[in-house]
Amino acid sequence: MKAIIIGAGMGGLCAGIALQRIGHEVAVYERVREIRPVGAALSLWSNGVKCLNFLGLEAQVRALGGQMDSMAYVEGHSGRTMTAFDLAPVYETAGQRAYPVARAELQNMLMDACGRENITLGAELVEVWEDESQVHARFADGSVASGDYLIGADGAHSLVRSYVLGEKLPRDYSGYVNFNGLVAIDPAIAPADRWTTFVADGKRASVMPVADGRFYFFFDVPGPAGQTVERADFKDTLRQHFADFAAPVQRLIDAIEPERTNRVEIFDITPFHTWTRGRVALLGDAAHNTSPDIGQGGCMAMEDAVVLGIALQVNTLGVQDALIRYQNRRAPRAGELVLRARRRAAETHGFDMAETQAWYDGLWTEDGSRIMRGLLSNIEGNPLD
């Protein structure tokens, strides 16, 4: 069988690898001419790492992952630690460590594993249609690809999603802007093996370790969508928003390089449960565009890829039947996590400051058990448990 995959992001590449492992021919088509990953890094929690392990990439992802042994929340103004705890209980219960990874390095590894000869860049999808035996994709240059089925892993603005649903879904603004990038690990900012988050006023400044002595950092700034900030002004903007935060946050702002920093307005899409139409199925952000508030966006795409491969391998009543079984296995879990992330965004970003203050107050008495239960609730129920 031949699979056409639209999108060479994390989900599309993992799907390609999963489908190759069951003997299917794979052709991946990516709109951009040069891969420039959106976002500097991502937190691969145990469920996402297990999916990569299942795809035969255990050694590769371990080499890319940061040594994140503990977690802490710090009061942003005073710099006092509110709670700090070891993450070992999470890893022991889940059966796998988490690995924060630089996104570009992960994507390059996945491209190598999928086979760069199977990936066509600069291929902008403009049309999808089906006949009795195949599905076809037309690209902006007039070329056409045909296969036995098509996977739409074409992201938050998915054209394939519009084909599957017959309409274009609105994206919902999550209420904040995220600045992110990579800096050298600096113990004056935070311990090298800890995910540390400074919180106050509905804002967050956070660092977590990735490989090669670097922190992945992000700043969350609540506010309206549609504003423009020039890259050259990123540091001054952050200094204004975090002017009264403690010295480690000021040191972090000083360390960032605006030309290597991303600014992203955060959106999600209200969950829907129709992921298939005939020989076409959705995967990753095309199926469940989520905010990053529980760190599960990339992990969900990897889970999709694993379940898709299994569904097509073990079910023999036809492609359409296997794709529906994939949809039915994935849509409820992914939809719940989208909503969970949405609720988390509201709690932590001061949309209702009384709710956010109650969360802050609870952090002072937190021993880590409640937070770890939350992390495990996101991990558990994955297809490789």
Primary descriptors:
six-stranded mixed β-sheet, 385 residues, 26% strand, alpha/beta, FAD/NAD(P)-binding domain
Note the topology.
Elements: E1 2-6, H1 10-21, E2 25-29, E3 41-44, H2 46-54, H3 58-64, E4 70-75, E5 81-86, H4 88-94, E6 99-102, H5 103-114, E7 119-120, E8 125-130, E9 135-139, E10 144-147, E11 149-152, H6 159-165, E12 172-184, E13 194-200, E14 203-210, E15 214-222, H7 234-241, H8 247-255, E16 262-268, E17 276-277, E18 280-282, H9 285-288, H10 297-314, H11 319-348, H12 353-363, H13 369-379
Give a description of the structure:
By secondary structure, this protein is α/β, with parallel strands linked by helices. The protein has a single domain (2-171, 268-379), classed as FAD/NAD(P)-binding domain (3-Layer(bba) Sandwich). Helices cover 38% and strands 26% of the residues. It has 13 helices and 18 strands. The protein has helices spanning 10-21, 46-54, 58-64, 88-94, 103-114, 159-165, 234-241, 247-255, 285-288, 297-314, 319-348, 353-363, 369-379; strands at residues 2-6, 25-29, 41-44, 70-75, 81-86, 99-102, 119-120, 125-130, 135-139, 144-147, 149-152, 172-184, 194-200, 203-210, 214-222, 262-268, 276-277, 280-282. The strands form 4 sheets. It has a 7-stranded mixed sheet with strand order 5-4-13-14-15-12-16. α1 (10-21) runs parallel beside α5, α1 packs parallel to α10 and α4 (88-94) packs parallel to α13. The longest helix is centred in the last third of the chain and has 30 residues, at 319-348. The protein starts with a strand and ends in a 6-residue tail after the last helix.
